[in-house]
## 1
Amino acid sequence: MTRQPLLEIENLRVGFKVYGGELHVLDGVDFVVNKGEKVGLVGETGCGKTTTMKAILRILPQPPGFIESGVIRFHGRDLMQVKDREMRHIRGQGISMIFQDPTAALNPVFTIGQQLEPVIKYASPENRRLPRKVIRQKAIQALRDVSLADPERLLKAYPVQLSGGMRQRVCIGMALATNPELLIADEPGTSLDVTIQDQVLRLLHQLVEERDSSVILITHTLGIVRQMTDRLYVMYAGNMVETAPTRRIFTNPLHPYTQGLMDAVPKLTGGGVAHGIPGRIPDYLHPPTGCRFHPRCPHAMDICRQKKPSFYTVEEAHQVACFLYDTSSGADSAPARKEALA
Amino acid sequence: MKLLPFIGKRAFHAIFVLLGLSIVIFVIARVMPGDPARVAVGAHAPDWVVQDIREQMHLDEPLVVQYFYWLRDALHGDFGVSLVTRRDVAQDIIEFFPASLELALFALLISAGLGITLGTLSAWHKDKFVDNLVRVLSYMGVVTPSFVFAILFLLLFGYLLHWFPTLGRLSEDVARPPTVTGFMTVDSLLAGDMVAFWDALKHLVLPALALAMGSMAQEARITRASMSENLNKDYIAASRAFGIPERYVMGRFLLKPSLIPTISIIGLDFAANFSNAFLVELIFVWPGLSRYGMNAILRKDLNAISAVILVLGVVFIIVNIIVDITVAKLDPRIGLRSARSE
Ligand SMILES: Nc1ncnc2c1ncn2[C@@H]1O[C@H](COP(=O)(O)OP(=O)(O)OP(=O)(O)O)[C@@H](O)[C@H]1O
Ligand code: SF4
Ligand SMILES: [Mg+2]
């Protein structure tokens, strides 16, 4: 089955200027989401998941952030080249995002209605001409869609007056109010306690199924990934290191980092990923040369310190960025090493 | 937020603040070196005249008794007779107070309007030319005392270019409108006298501008700081991600939270401009309260000093209440808290 790509990222490099130098965070990210596909994205904290998503929507804080290179295509259009006006139309109806921290994503000095209504109003040229009353009705419906009780009253409430779970639902409702083709969900529910998180995720799952939009779901909770996504990306220190159909990655992880991640699964209860691998994510001021995972990798070779591995296709739809799977360079004995790994 | 109980509570507090202030004023006035009665009648008056005055002013009674006499009179709006001008102090205040208030209010309009505009431009073009220019100028504005601006403007726009008058509140050949509010601009408008209005307005420009420079610089800096901080907040990124137009995001979602710190500063600046304007008032021969108060201090005119300080105290308290109400109205986090603590 050949599917049409909806979003393609090639070799995206993003840095941050900080006191003392430049953080080289995204180190050539390659990433694809096909139409209708639900893609998971996992990786330990600080690996650049949110940064990648913000780059897609062109909402990176600049400064300090800056894009060094890369191409981001949505429906084949290069998002970095499109005019601001056009980008505005892509945002909302094309791509929308549920932010990681619902408290930070809601403006503290405006009511929910004052924030939600413009989202609906500016979603499309047609909506802009709608009378206020109709927009309000749509806002009420958006809140009802995320199972919030008493939406009329909620519209008049300020974020401080809501519980964490309600804020998260409001954020989901806002992101879905524009009926986006591609929904980015950045760790929804992480800030909530486990039962409420579970409710919120189940709700999100159901809403996404109903609409059959494409989804990028970032999460630390691998159980959710398994339930909700078709394909999974594993990210490490600013690189996508492996992607495959979700079930495949769970049964047959190839990248040493992914393997460590899966080993750690039983210990995962919503906290940090990859306690199974010794070491920490590298310092972005002076990242390791070559494969950024080499200081922590049990299989590191000489070449790993010199060259950065690109994606090698191991099987259809299973790609891994690791020299262990480099079958192209003839003299190499990659298959043998692969066996050694198994 | 319920406005009335809030104001009521603050007014209740204010009574105690004012009582405390009145005690301080009274004590300071009475312990100043020199015999107020002697100062009042002059060095060459015979002793029995001095004694007469002493009795009139109850200066021979214990301090506590003197205070209650003084307080009783003050509550009746009777601050006694100026020991120097022999005029009723209350009469003096009524004459000079509106002139200062009009000047300070005009300076507030200029400084808030320009300060917020410059700060906003600066934040939008952070680290670009506009920002650097505003930063240099506002730094100069903060470190330069207002009397320097006053002299500069007087020489440049007054004597050299003849753009604006430099003396008093109204030209000599313009008939003074009947006093209603004491504000020359308002009174001339009330009288329908446009000639007087424009003349009064022109007289206001230079002293108000001189007074406004420092606060404008301060307000520009605060606005820039809070705005460029908020510019990187997730709620701004979120509004953009939903496709809301940039001018809406900037003019509403960014502006309102960013203005809250600025408004507190505007209040402080206004109160400071009101009480510290004596050099500017002196330079432009503005018949204001600051100049009156300064003269009173130089001449040990006790009754006048006490009245001026008390009036300034009331102004400070009222400004504070207005600032608190405005901030609570703008920021529901504060508004709700103060409503809950009722
Ligand atoms: N505004 C910023 N200023 C400076 N550095 C930043 C900024 N935003 C991100 N970074 C850097 O980029 C790195 C990646 O951040 P990002 O938020 O993308 O991580 P993440 O994968 O989303 O992590 P988490 O799971 O904790 O959300 C951080 O470690 C940080 O060093
Ligand atoms: S490329 Fe080398 S260092 Fe990187 S994961 Fe593979 S074996 Fe380890
Ligand atoms: Mg993140």
## 2
Amino acid sequence: MNEGESELTLAQLARNGASSQPMVSDLRMSAAGAGDLVAKLAPIARFADMFVRPAEQGLERVLVFADDQSGGYLRLICPLDESFPVPLSQVLPAAYQEECELYELWGVEPGGGKPVNRVILPPSAETAEPLRLPGGDRLSSEVRAPHVVQGEAIEFPWGPIRGAGQESLYLGLVTTGEELLDAYLAMFHKHRGLEHRMVGQTLARALFLAERCEGLGAVGNALAFARAAEAALGIAVEPAAEVTRCLALELERIYHHIGSLAALGAATGLSVGQAEAEILLEDCLRLNARVFGHRYIFNLLEVGGVRRGADLAALDSALDRLEARFESLVADLLATNSYVDRLEGAGTIAADDAHRLGLVGPVARAAGVATDLRRTHQVSSTSYVGFQPAREQAGDCLARTLVGAAEVRESLRLVRHWVRSGTPLQDDWAAPGPGQDHVRGPAEGLGWAETCRGEALVHLEVAGGRVSFARLRPAATRNWRAFDDALRARNVFTDVPIVEASFWLTVAGFAR
Amino acid sequence: MTPIVRDLGAQPLSGAAHGEIDAAAARLKRRSQKVLRRSLHIRTVDTGSCGACESEIRLLSSPYYDFHRLGLFFTPTPRHADCLLVTGPGCRAMDHALLSAYEAMPAPKVVVAVGACPLGGVFGADRYTRGEITDVVPVDVVVPGCPPSPLALIHGLLLALDRIEERITLQEGEQ
Ligand code: SF4
């Protein structure tokens, strides 16, 4: 299939689909039809998500693909029956995580006898019942993928409790000594069942939970959730509130990327660089508190808008100094050979793998994949004028650091533009969220945001003003998928913290 | 009763608050030298946090707070730890790890619950989370906030030292 035909197919598919909301097309089909189409879509669209939801008759499977050329999402919806050509992860390797989750949540086997990893249920859990289906069949243990370490290699266990101030996860590092041969991750010790908890909750309470899905990404996750709810309820957000949300999103990106630099300083043993980055990080957090009332910008977003305006004078007076100190930090770091040498060539991800695994955000952009929702999936036409996504090709820790630095620069430019160009911003306590007018019959919405770690998606179903179904897909879900691949790429033991700091993902987001 | 620390983190730090850090810091150092005659060692356990509490804990060793100058150190092993800083709502899958860490600590030991999560303020008790970590380990000091700022954490560590001192006095009285 040549490229011209591919683009045409994707655009045609979107046109053929029913549009449930702007930029989203739904194609309903048989399971067999969806399976055939997935194989055609795999090379031309980015696999974004797969989940199972209750339907009028039984369960149905929803696959979400992103169109990174012209923007928009395509959803394939099919009944959950045996005719799905399985296993899906053979054509969409990125979907393996979802296949494993669906087995434990709903008892859905990937089919074809493909073994799945135990992901959500902790290794020690005695229950073997699907988490979502009450009274469902017990899971058959034989579909578990065997986890074998053989030859001269040993598995060095690290976790779930790790270093000071690190999130819990189990990392099994397979090694014969210094070199890393393989890595096994168990990420769901922290599973809080957020999606399950949201069901039956008011939108405000569910947004509170979405924000805490990843505290170091609260704005991005809350924004994706709010947009999903607004799409479901048909709420239009005032332009001033929309820009204020974007302002918060960019302030979050700035502190997040600087936090990654601090972690890289610690991982490479560059104490001075670490200290400099930590000073800047603390300054950013205090600036957040002055501008939006919270160091991590919690409690700002609500469905329909924002709860408060920004303190623009405080922000304006801090921008130049922040930028000057950031540039000086980056220049010093990049002029330190011992630092750059540790990053270069470590934790490399190839562009093909980045596409194959559906990676998002800075991790994908550092591997040469052009994906940034701020360019392609803009919700408002005024917010991101002149926006230029960062991009590198090497896919290693250095490339991710360079992408992070470029993104901070671009975020600072955007913030300065919004603050100084007279763009209308929310400058007072905002109007309250949706009242009873908006509470109508069952409706659904897809929400997205380019968070500091990449695309976050939220699928939400609402009935009577309360959540009836929720699916959260933070960026961490996609990008942790490549972490073990990055570790296997000719690394040694001491590279592990460096690769982790350059990814700078959260376990909380993955485990939900 | 479990002591509660006031959260000073919601507001940006003024010059006065910086003074407060220094005063708290000096007091902390004096107390750890008096009570333990050495540094206070801290082990952290995340039982399902959103990650923001961890970020504030990491900043304790950053130049603004620099808790090493107060004789406070993180330790990678519970065997050397006097104090367990626990974040998160007590995800049940972490029960075993949390309890093992606590049991591996030598006496006298204290547990500081960090943030609203381990107090049950974010999630309730259900099949995923405990809601309150007191079901798994005894809690001596709670530092509320979502997340509590590094300054509030320093205040919490001061109270933890009080608890350790009480226990040492009790032990000496029994001997
Ligand atoms: S207390 Fe708040 S900030 Fe801390 S882990 Fe819980 S939700 Fe996150």
## 3
Amino acid sequence: MEMKPLTRVVLGLVCLLVAIWLVAPTLVVVPMSFNENKSLAFPPQGFSWQWYQNFVTNPDWSNSFLNSLKVASIVAVLATVLGTLAAFGLDRMKARPANLLRMLMLTPMVVPGVVLAIGIYAVYLDTRLVGTLLGFVLAHTILALPFVLIAVSANLEVFDRRLETAAASLGANALTTFRTVTLPLIAPGLLSGLLFAFATSFDEIVVSLFITNPYLKTLPVQIFASITRDADPTVAAVGTILLFATTILIGSGMLLLGRERKGRQ
Amino acid sequence: MNPGQESRGNPGQESRGAAIDLKSISKAYGSFKALDGVSLHIKAGEFMTLLGPSGSGKTTTLNVVAGFTEASSGALEVGGKSVVGVPAHKRNIGVVFQHYALFPHMTVSRNVAYPLALRGVAGAERERRVGQALDMVKMADFGHRFPSELSGGQQQRVALARAIVFDPPLLLMDEPLGALDKKLREWLQLEIKRIHRELGTTFVYVTHDQEEALVLSDRIAVFNRGRIEQIGTGRELYDEPATLFVGKFIGDSTVLRGAAATSGGETAIDIAGQKVATVKRLANGGRPVMLLRPEKLALARRGVGGDGRNRLTGRIGEAIYLGSGSKYEVDLADGSKAIVRSTLEADSFAIGDEVDVLFAGADVKLLADDDKADLTLT
Ligand SMILES: Nc1ncnc2c1ncn2[C@@H]1O[C@H](COP(=O)(O)OP(=O)(O)O)[C@@H](O)[C@H]1O
Ligand SMILES: [Mg+2]
């Protein structure tokens, strides 16, 4: 159906408004990070790099950032390996028990974070895992696993298992088949699972608040602590850095995917 | 010559194919028997077709040979060696699937190179053999394309190249042309025949299309309900069907039923009051079925001619012009249908004409009735 010019203009305006509404809070952060005064008031006054400098030089900030990076990286790999194995197992099981098990493994997504946090905290107190790297990794992996499971399962659903039969007829054993046929074809699911797992861990706050201690803080914990203590624009600087990092990451990922798809068509 | 490899009828050319022996292979799914004692010897270098309606066990048989499915019982030898318990990836058998099964993330060349890479063939030798295989299926110019950039027929030719590039002594094909249109199918049938001739390996081909089976095969095994009804050349199956099922599945046929009376060494059959004389004796009594091929029947105006041949009265129900002649469906007095093929020179008839169907007693095949054969054929 042809659209009338007026309809087109109105529709365009509405879309623009919605877009602004969605990104405005994010974009407010950027000017705030250059504030000259130690205040989170908007609009900010003057211009300075001091909050970026603070982020790099103040060990409270830089250490928590490195901690988050470390935890999220380990969690991403661990959750991807475990989640992929789980997705495979479920894909190749009988439907009924598989559905039951799948629901069980997805519960961390639906159970309220606080409930999980209290449970984990109680266990960690006994096992002395509070404030340890292992503690953070284990807790975050529980939370990240469902994302990997969902992403990889979605890919396996459309994966043609008959290709594995074909590979066998050509002489490939199970491991070679997985490496050369199955894995490359489910790679997009794996990759998005990996990213989701990383992101889940990197900005996890609820459970982290429970299992943190002064010796091991992650970035969200540090942000939360900072913002409850005083109005420090370093928070805005961190937010801006993360905004650009994720934009570049997601953007290049989409570019790569697009190029690959084009190559195949 | 290796044990189990026999020379083909082709003089001067030593066969590179493997003989295959299936001995009472059965496959049960729960209480359902998908295969029920299938025995089949395939000669080295032979083109054997497994023909039968959908669900008759052809794919299951192929899967057992390929190693994708384990038989419940029975023995299986390829090239004189038992392969029972040998996993598919160690059998060195080429397989072509109806759904092509090309790896979508690899180019045509990499698809074809895949089995070579697994066998440690590398570098220039690998390239040469990939080129040779693609040449054989006339896809040499498409090496850098991805499967999604090819038509169905092209994809299947690449799949064929991939299945023969590692020189397997046996090639299995499961309805490889099933998803293609008729023109393409007929052309690829001839291509497959040529490739079989050039390679000299054993081909086992599955189809439910009897015409395709007749075009391609040295011999055909007719499957029905998990059993083999008959094994023979196309000619043998057409001229001498062992069962009513085979007679009806291969070619057109007229099937008549009536009470038999044997006297003086010959059996006569009563078809709605009209006696049909045959030259055979009915061995086992029972209710026989008569099977007649369309070109053995002739049409005449009611009561005209006949010179001592059997005569059944009927009326033309359908007349189809075929170019090289005509095909008629005649509604007979007993309610059955006769299918008659006539040449261009013969008299032509119109729908509704009262006619007599004429045929010699020697052309009547007497077969045991089995209601199983009445299942709708696909
Ligand atoms: N995995 C399976 N589980 C249960 N029944 C099966 C299975 N595979 C095949 N069958 C049954 O075995 C019979 C033969 O199947 P198949 O060999 O595929 O027939 P065809 O290839 O001749 O069409 C069919 O009735 C089919 O439903
Ligand atoms: Mg089949």
